[in-house]
TrEMBL record:
CDD domains: HisKA (cd00082). The chain crosses the membrane at residues 12-31, 37-54, 61-82, 88-107. Residues 126-338 form the Histidine kinase domain. This is histidine kinase.
Amino acid sequence: MKLLFSKYKEHKYIVNIFGLLIFITLISHLFRNHLDVINITLLHIIPVIIVAINGKLRSTLLIAFICVILLNFLHIPPLYSFSVHNDYHILSFIFFGVIGGIITYQAKNLDSQKKQNEIRESLLNIISHDLKTPLSTIQGSVNLMLSNSNLDEKSKYSLLEDINYSSQRMKRLITNILDSTRLSNKNIDIKHQWCDFEDILGVALDEFSQMQNDEKLIIKIDELSLFWGDNTLLTQLFINLLDNAFKYSKKGTKIYFEITNYKKHVKIKIFNENEIIDKEKLRSIFDKFYRAEDSNDILGSGIGLSICKSIVKLHNGKIEAIAKNNGISIEVDLPIIKKVRI
């Protein structure tokens, strides 16, 4: 029922257009003795214009075709026939499609500009909020250390940990913004080399505090041979997957990270307990700048998982998010395209 309602909302404008078309057909038919053909034609073009504003070319052409059929059958002589004997009427019918096509094209351009503005706004929000917060932490910790020379070693270490953690967050955020731009380039080439997943995981874990790794992370890795892929991109994949799990896992719960070796592919799974997200939202989780509605108090740009998706795609793999066991499991399959000859 929920799915049906969701589909209705998605195509609600089409349902409304058919309602409007029926209304116009009835009005035109009832008052056809008082209206010229040109007036009736103009009335029938209204649904075409409205559907074209939504930027859907196929829907526009469908409505234009239906309008032409109704107009021809009910109002163009000979009546109640699909025959057309006047070239002027044929040209009028073609105009339906041309007008609908032009408006659809313009609507698509406007939609594209709107999306670009949204991306710019999101980037500004990231810079103004997600960079400012860790920077404030660093400034606060440094000022505290400078103004208090009698701090004990434990307090100093704690403040240094805060500075390190905040600077790592800023570094990850800037790296993600730069990677997002780079991966948007469709001509990007990946630099294949032999990669060791254990080494990659070790480098990725260095990006997080030792306390985080020790307290929350449970790692299980199969015996793996070297993998033919892009070492830098795969390291970024691991960092972003871990960063996402650390940010969104429930307090006091564990994060499970697994790498399993299969005959033709390698599976990477990372699971953390979290609020259940419905399937519709799970499908959007890899979209650029997508953030869960209840995550405003969590620092994040919403581009980490979209970068993961791009990296996996460049390796001809697949990535999906699955809701299970009161949490989310993000699972990556990377095909083995080359094996080490020993």
